[in-house]
Amino acid sequence: MDKRSFLKSAGLLGLGTMTGTSGLARLIESVAEIPSAELAKDEDFWKQIRADYLLKPDYINLENGYYCILPKPILESQIKHLREINYQGSYYLRTIQFDNKKAMAAKLALLAGCSPDELIITRNTTESLDIIIGGLDWKPGDEAVMAEQDYPSMLNMFRQVASRYGVVNKIISVPNLPVSDEEIVNLYASAITEKTKLLMVCQMINITGHILPVRKICDMAHTRGVDVMVDGAHAFGHFRFTIPELNCDYYGSSLHKWLSVPLGSGILYVKKDKIRKIWPLIASGETNPDSINRLNQTGTHPVYTDLTVTEALDYFNMLGAERKETRLRYLQHYWTDKVRNMPHIILNTPADPARSCAIANVGVKGKKPGELGDILLKKYKIYCAPIDGANVHGCRITPNVYTTTEELDVLVRALTELG
Ligand SMILES: Cc1ncc(COP(=O)(O)O)c(C=O)c1O
Fold first, then answer.
1. Is the CB of 234 under 6 A from ligand 1?
2. Which residues contact 263 (CB under 8 A, 6 or more apart)?
3. pLDDT at residue 168 is higher than 70
4. Distance separating alpha carbons of residues 70 and 74, to the nearest angstrom
5. CA-to-CA distance for 159 and 178, rounded, in angstroms?
6. Is the CB of 97 inside a 6 Å radius of any atom of ligand 1?
7. Residue 361: enclosing H or E segment and its boundaries?
8. Which of 36, 44, 135, 192 has the fewest CB atoms within 10 Å around its CB?
9. Does the beta carbon of 236 sit less than 6 angstroms from any atom of ligand 1?
């Protein structure tokens, strides 16, 4: 069945709801032959994806960066797992809990392109990266390299490590609109000395959506003998890559941002030969220094979140990584291309499609980000994230797969009228 007949037969043109992942499977079957660049512009198709989300009518949600709400089939799966765990109780926790968690981690490792021996499920990026920052065997005078645009939780952990062990933190500032990869690589290179032990870099800077040339930064750092930890909070499930192709040593991400796993789920990747370098933040009973399970002591926690990884991955794979990435990039360029050259607009995200995906940050000359955010919410019913710091002054705009171009038209009208 082709897409048009599918939508017609289901009575779905513009109005209907998809029911469970089988609805998604049938919809995807109807568009299987359509190239992703063409499908990215097909509002009928994406309205069917939107029907999987229960959206609050009070505002247009363009703040899917902190957390993106779950599509209904995944939410229902989480509730199903919660009921089952509540039914089985301690029996579940004492029997197959750990095997199941390992099985979930193995599925995530498949998407990440790494060995299951190198990846664990954590609660979020903060936990993943702080395990590394706090777990290295720091000595007084050791140095770490990072950027002022990095996420505060990690910068705070580096501050603690500096106070505790006498580590020196070297903080660079990444330009919002670089002219080349080399400009960024050289910036990181200039902060490295013979004392540098760890370099942290964001795969996508959260306040601007700027994708950094991580592979080139890792290669450069390795030639200087420095390990690299990548903050992939906004990358995993957003755009396509594998962790090994980044050539990093440590990698952390949150699954509740772009992979539609329920709140409180993340991953930590540690390259096999680096595992023994890390002291666990919370000690476990695992004594093998090369086992990543040594770093995975969580105590008792909401295991139904981990179990929902299965359905979230099924949903993601069914929708298709390429279709998703292409639509997200299309949505961002749909609005940024219309406003970028307006004289009163400051776009804090590079124009090059390879340097961004769904997220972009926009400022209006003469308006503080908080003021702009207030106007967008009160006058135009747009909810977004104002950012005012680290050389970024503007509102972060984060659509997701359920966002429509009509909603982005409201944003474009608002930004135009603010001129
Ligand atoms: C770049 C970056 N790193 C780390 C985090 C922390 O993620 P979490 O709160 O899920 O631990 C975020 C959250 O937005 C982020 O944007």
1. yes
2. 67, 256, 305
3. yes
4. 6
5. 28
6. no
7. strand 360-364
8. 44
9. no
What is the CA(24)–ligand 1 centre distance, in A?
A: 29
Confidence check: pLDDT of 336 > 50:
yes
Tell me, what's the pLDDT at 9?
A: 47
Taking the C-alpha atoms of residue 375 and residue 382, their distance in angstroms, rounded to an integer, is 9
Q: Please give the structure tokens belonging to residue 278.
A: 């890390």
CA of 27 to the centre of ligand 1 (A): 32
CB 296 less than 6 A from any atom of ligand 1 = no
pTM score of the predicted model: 0.95
Average pLDDT over residues 31-40: 98
The pLDDT of 44-55, averaged and rounded, is: 97
Six-digit token string for 242: 């594998």
pLDDT at residue 11 in the model:
39
Atom of ligand 1 lying closest to residue 127 CA: 11
Pocket flag, ligand 1, residue 202 (CB < 6 Å): yes
The pLDDT tens digits for 1-25 are 565 555 444 434 333 455 567 789 9
Q: Quote the CA–CA distance of 247 and 337 in Å, as a whole number.
A: 33
* CA of residue 58 relative to chain centroid, distance: 25
Give per-residue pLDDT as tens, 173-226.
999 999 999 999 999 999 999 999 999 999 999 999 999 999 999 999 999 999
269 in contact with ligand 1, CB cutoff 6 A: no
Phi, psi of 338 (to 5 degrees): -80, -25
Concatenated DSSP letters of 140-188? TT-EEEEETTS-HHHHHHHHHHHHHH--EEEEE---SS-S-HHHHHHHH
